[in-house]
Automatic annotation (TrEMBL), chain A:
GO molecular function, a single term: oxidoreductase activity, acting on the aldehyde or oxo group of donors
Claim: Kinase is one of the keywords in the record: no
Keywords: Oxidoreductase, Pyruvate
Protein name: Pyruvate ferredoxin oxidoreductase
Domain of life: Archaea
Occurrences of domain Pyruvate/ketoisovalerate oxidoreductase catalytic (ranges): 12-169
Lineage, uppermost ranks: Archaea, Thermoproteota, Thermoprotei, Sulfolobales, Sulfolobaceae
Gene3D superfamilies registered for this protein in UniProt: Pyruvate-ferredoxin oxidoreductase, PFOR, domain III
SUPFAM superfamilies: Pyruvate-ferredoxin oxidoreductase, PFOR, domain III (SSF53323)
């Protein structure tokens, strides 16, 4: 691998920054050079957030437009907001959930409209509840999926598992791995 | 005691700066929280042998470091870029007096304005005050340059600025840290002939400042590096150096000389040696042409005719990105750079600004403030706002921040609004901001008899930057206001609908007495409450009672309250923290709380 760029998008409070940090830690432990750029700072929840993770032969912390190999969207609308970062050959892991912004009277996209727009990329539409159930952690579950689908080429699952502080996260991550194994031929993949 | 690791550790640029300061024997560290600078002090707070504090504002923080450095201590001061404006009065003097120990100021800028009112380039303070400005290009260099800054400051006896920004401070990367050194505290000493800037002394200090500046020029001359050779050169400053290196590598462009510097003021004169034989040079730097202009001057001084390009190709606004670097390199070299075009062009993704949290008391304050003003006979007024989480009151449905320009500005602006229109304004200010720079303006409002309603949103924390403390934890704002001479002071609970009445009574008093009245809206930050006490209650909407009037989701807008397809309200059990603020908002009594109140709940909200 020369370099790998992963963009994680979502809403403040969904664990976007944590997911980015975990990916960076896992690659760092294996000796890859990493940059992980966050735009946190405001405490309030509910705003659009993204995290750029760059791995390998890189110097700049930000992904260029059309430069991401993987886009993880913890909320579906946020995939659209960040789509210009995704390479034409990139893959999208999309949490099939739409959350309206906390502004009154805005028109929101329906999930079907979003997947229609995204169909020109390799898009995996994921249902968090199906992966981790009621008690699991959505962000970690999806991380497990992405691990199994992509990062497992470079890392072992223990590189991740040791980073989680509690069992809920470890279980959610493993559930994501199992989900991918079970579903990889069935998941909506449009190209 | 926290052990320092010797192998590279993944950390934020801000942590790297803190570890650099520890490796330099920092003893005193003061700051005012501000994104993206906050984690520097937070990291240092874990080390007991270093004195750390959140000061009431950046000027006080700076003076704390300055005073310590007068005593020979090694001091660090941190703030966001706009904090430099607050600190600047004493900052300028520190360059005249110099210091006896070491004084390093970290200013964290925010190109692109992710969480700031402007993207001002603080490097101008370096030029204006003859203070060197070091600019890291990644978290590792942030650590190393902090050590460099302390060494420079103590060897010359002069303040040194480190200019970092979001993409250094809030970037996590591997950093090798040097071992911590014992803190160097000062020894009691007096030197009024140096530090008391009456004209006679200031004139002598000015001469010494100029001498130190010459010394600084030679001690920073090594902060230049270069790779490759060619008749054209690209000079990357700070983080832009990182972008330039990667861009040229991925674009496979060689025969270009890459020059990098991490000292933007004074631009090291050794840069001239790197540019001999070069025909033209492109300067890539964040924000303003600070290095570009110094380079042009240096070239003229040295009689060199080299074309300099910079902001004309990169543009001014926003943060540096690969796109800007690619575009400017392409124009500079006259080559086409193949860039992938995104196949779709989306313009209508609904914006998603941050929202006040579920349970945020500010939402209730804004909701009942508007009601109270109407009740008090004020239909239209000027909401003079300020900086904090409550700045989000600018958004619909509240629209209750007609201006917010800088910390503590609400009362001064309100004064101007009233003097020019005779419309009674409402000044809205948070507790931390009140003590930051609100106090002098409050004294002015009393002294000059300003008819104004002041609402202090007191959640007893500097919430926006992550719940740091505030002087309001130990000073009662109502007492402070009374002490300054405000005649009408009331405390109200924004969750209680009678808050509207408190507002209307105060407004009537202002109209009658033509003087300032102040209301303290007192309730803790919701995030802090749920950190202390785990919520066990949630709110429910009774679909039989709900008429779909839209008030709770369109006019109160707690993010946990959603609109069903039939327009009735439904509450997300996941997001609701059970604060109960929405219960009195529903005119049809359709919302109720369920579950047992956890122990210590009320106290957490009101203490
Ligand atoms: S305010 Fe009450 S009646 Fe109106 S939509 Fe909300 S719950 Fe229903
Ligand atoms: S009780 Fe009401 S206002 Fe409080 S968090 Fe729940 S829905 Fe929001």
């Amino acid at each position: 691998m020369d370099k790998l760029s992963v963009l994680i998008a979502g809403i403040g409070g969904q664990g976007v920054v944590t997911a980015g940090r975990i990916i960076a830690e896992a690659f760092s432990v294996k000796g890859f050079k990493v940059f992980e750029a966050e735009t946190h700072g405001l405490s309030q929840r509910g705003g659009a957030v993204n995290v750029h993770v760059r791995i390998g032969n890189v110097d700049g912390p930000l992904i260029s437009k059309s430069g991401a190999d993987i886009l993880i969207a913890l909320e579906a609308t946020e995939a659209l907001r960040n789509i210009e970062y995704l390479s034409n050959h990139g893959a999208i892991f999309l949490n099939a959930s739409v959350k309206p912004p906390s502004l009154p009277k805005v028109k929101v996209y329906q999930l079907s409209e979003i997947t229609e727009i995204l169909k020109r990329w390799r898009t995996y539409v994921l249902d968090c509840n199906e992966i981790v159930g009621e008690t699991g952690r959505c962000n970690t579950g999806i991380l497990g999926v992405v691990y199994q689908a992509s990062f497992s080429k470079y890392l072992d699952k223990d590189d991740f598992l040791t980073l989680f502080k509690d069992q809920v996260n470890r279980d959610s991550f493993l559930a994501g791995i199992r989900y991918w194994e079970k579903m990889k031929y069935l998941l909506t993949e449009t190209m | 005691m926290i052990m320092l690791v010797s192998k590279p550790k993944l950390m934020l640029g801000n942590e790297a700066i803190a570890y650099g300061a520890l490796a330099s024997g920092v003893a005193i560290a003061a700051g005012y929280p501000g994104t993206p600078s906050t984690e520097i002090i937070e990291t240092l707070m874990r080390f007991r042998d270093v004195y750390t504090e959140w000061s009431s504002n950046e000027k006080v923080a700076f003076e704390t470091g300055f005073g310590a450095a007068m005593m020979g201590a090694r001091a660090l001061v941190t703030m966001k870029h706009v904090g430099m404006n607050v600190a600047s009065d004493s900052l300028m003097s520190s360059s005249y007096t110099g210091v006896s120990g070491a004084l390093v100021i970290v200013s964290a800028g925010d190109p692109g304005m992710w969480s700031s009112q402007s993207e001002q380039d603080i490097r101008h303070y370096g030029l204006m005050g003859m203070i060197p400005v070091l600019e890291p290009f990644n978290p590792q260099s942030a650590h190393d340059l902090t050590v460099e800054a302390f060494n420079l400051s103590s060897s010359v006896g002069h303040p040194v600025i480190i200019s970092t920004n979001t993409r250094i401070s809030h970037v996590r990367s591997q950093v090798n840290v040097l071992p911590k050194q014992p803190p160097i505290y000062g020894k009691f000493q007096k030197d009024p002939g140096k530090y008391s800037l009456v004209p006679e002394i200031a004139k002598r200090d000015r001469e010494e400042q100029l001498n130190r500046w010459e010394k600084i020029k030679s001690l920073t001359s090594h902060l230049v590096e270069s790779h490759g050779d060619g008749e054209v050169a690209i000079l990357g400053v700070g983080i832009s150096y990182s972008y330039v290196r990667e861009a040229l590598r991925t674009l496979n462009i060689d025969q270009v000389k890459i020059v990098g510097t991490s000292c933007s003021v004074p631009l090291p004169y050794t840069i001239i040696d790197e540019l001999i034989g070069v025909e033209k040079v492109l300067v890539i730097e964040e924000l303003d042409p600070v290095v570009e202009n110094q380079l042009k001057a240096l070239l003229i001084d040295n009689g060199l005719h080299i074309r300099v390009e910079g902001k004309n190709l990169t543009g001014y606004a926003g943060e540096m990105t690969f796109e800007r670097v690619h575009r400017s390199i392409s124009k500079f070299l006259g080559v086409t750079i193949e860039e992938e075009e995104s196949p779709i062009n989306l313009t209508e993704v609904p914006r998603r600004p941050p929202a006040m949290c579920p349970g945020c008391p500010h939402r209730s304050s804004f909701f009942f403030l508007k009601k109270g003003l109407t009740l008090g006979g004020i239909q239209s007024t000027f909401y003079s706002g300020d900086i904090g989480c409550y700045s989000l009151g600018v958004l619909p449905p509240f629209n209750e921040q007609d201006s917010l320009v800088s910390m503590g500005s609400s009362l001064g602006i309100a004064n101007g609004v009233y003097r020019s229109t005779h419309v009674i304004p409402v000044a809205i200010i948070g507790d931390s901001t009140f003590f930051h720079t609100g106090l002098p303006a409050l004294a002015n409002a009393v002294y000059n008899k300003l008819p104004v309603l002041i609402v202090v949103l007191d959640n007893r924390s500097t919430a926006m930057t992550g719940q740091q403390g505030s002087p309001s934890l130990v000073i009662d704002i109502a007492d402070a206001a009374k002490g300054i001479g405000v005649k009408y002071v009331e405390i109200g609970d924004p969750f209680d609908p009678s808050f509207a009445k408190t507002v209307s009574k105060a407004v009537e008093w202002v109209k009658k007495n033509q003087s300032p009245a102040l209301i303290v809206a007192k309730r803790a930050c919701a995030l802090e409450v749920i950190d202390k006490v785990k919520p066990t209650q949630v709110a429910f909407v009774d679909p039989n009672k709900c008429t779909g009037c839209t008030i709770c989701y369109d006019y109160f807008t707690c993010p946990a309250i959603l609109k069903r397809d039939d327009k009735k309200a439904i509450i997300s059990q996941q997001d609701c923290i059970g604060c109960g603020a929405c219960v009195p908002v529903c005119p049809f009594n359709a919302i109720r709380l369920e579950g047992d109140k956890p122990e210590g709940w009320d106290q957490a909200w009101t203490s």
